[in-house]
Specification:
Blueprint: H1 2-21, H2 35-51, H3 55-79, H4 90-120, H5 138-148, H6 158-185, H7 192-222, H8 237-248, H9 257-288
Helix pairs in contact: 1-2, 1-3, 1-9, 3-4, 4-6, 6-7, 7-9
Amino acid sequence: SAACAICIVNPVDVVKSRLQMQGELGSGQRAYNGVFSGLAHIAKHEGLQGLYRGLVPAVWFQMVGNSVRFGVYHVGKQYMGVDESSANNSSVNFCLGLVTGASAGAIACPFFVIKTQMQVQTSVSANVVGHQHMHTSMWGAVKTIAKEEGIRGFFRGLDAFVPRCVALVAFQMTSYDFGKSQLIARGARDGPATHMLASAFAAGCACLAMQPFDLVGARMMNQPFSIDGAPKLYTSPVDCFLKTVRSEGPLALYKGCFANYMRMGPQYILTFMFFEQFIKLAKGLRSQN
């Protein structure tokens, strides 16, 4: 379900990644003014290929990360005896989200590293923001990172990425369940419209909670490294956080926030709606057998 969703919203994810790199540490050109102008700018100068940069690792990231996220979360809910009819289950859901987010972040980190690097890169000089890695494909990126940095290259920024995933999943899953249960309790039908509203609410909560971690993680993953493997810009998430605030101001931590919501809103609506329908289909197939 998440893989289907990212194929639709990947162009917005590309804009989000580039907005986060724009003006990094107070340097570089300003190529993008916002989500919609960014989409139009990339489409004009790079075409459809530019809008869908990094799609393959993005799909892998969604499949791997969400398999862990949804699988562990819902199995955990069953194990803890929590379902939609349980009262006061938000605390249990939140704790399950913390565990699920950390697990998903650690396992799916390599795909996010490659996705970020490929989305930021461009062949148009006027569109350049951040460091350019110039990978030709996902497999080419795997070979380059493995050769130049070894296994640690696939886990760049993991210490910032795991908190990002923890914040994302804890607030996303908990707020979706909360929003859905509240709507149903007020007479809404357990159908696509309810799932859509709960998904939009979950996306907003998750976006606000994770955005600073998302920016710090993305910058650490995309930064250049010296031949001996030492990072050239940031030595840790705290170092990246402090340098960003000092050079660009505290609001810089929320660069690309609206783009993130424009991606996450439709993506979560599609993901949860696909997920709910797949669950119903699976239950129907099991009942027939």
